[in-house]
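Hi there, hope your week has been kind to you so far. It would help a lot if you went through both lines with me. No rush at all, and the record is pasted right below:

***
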Amino acid sequence: MVQIKICGVRDVDTAGFCVEQGVDFLGLVFYPPSRRYVDPASARSIVRAFQGQIKFVGVFMDAPEEEVNRTAEEVGVDYIQLHGKESPAYCQRMRRPVIKAFGVGPTFSFRELEPYRQNVLYHLFDNPKWGSGCAFDWLRLKGSEGTKAALTKPFFLAGGLNPENVREAIRETGPAGVDVSSGVETNGRKDLEKVRKFVNAVRYPLSVAQYSL
């Protein structure tokens, strides 16, 4: 079953709704320039409310290693997601399982994945412009045998996903999980109805039309 990650959750009520809907992962963004940033104290309140009911992912970008490990420990997240230019050695020094994000742009090569093979649990493929709400060319994940050989880790698909296109994205790329943020927002805030539609589109694909009305 394809797993679902809702990223950029900032409050207990939204987190609770996601738990009720059967979401698998919640992403807590610890990158201050992001409009989805959540401070560690607020994040800890969310984790405490639902620990054991859902997996929490701390999202970081080019932060000092010790800061990442300290925040992950204090908040109690289950995974660390790295969205910057963090090296394989950096990933190895993380004290939580790592989800390493890669921007799939025109110059991206799947050979970039090879050095990370021993140091990450999941890859995540996204548009190079993180949080843009735009998809990249999904067909790049179905390309040559070399590309397929590079995909030795389970991966999350991100970038431009929404309730209307997520089923096609899954069919085209075969991810272990899908990651959505702006695709379930209205005016910059999580839209619970869009979250519900997104989950239903992933879980119940034959009924997706009725949830898109």
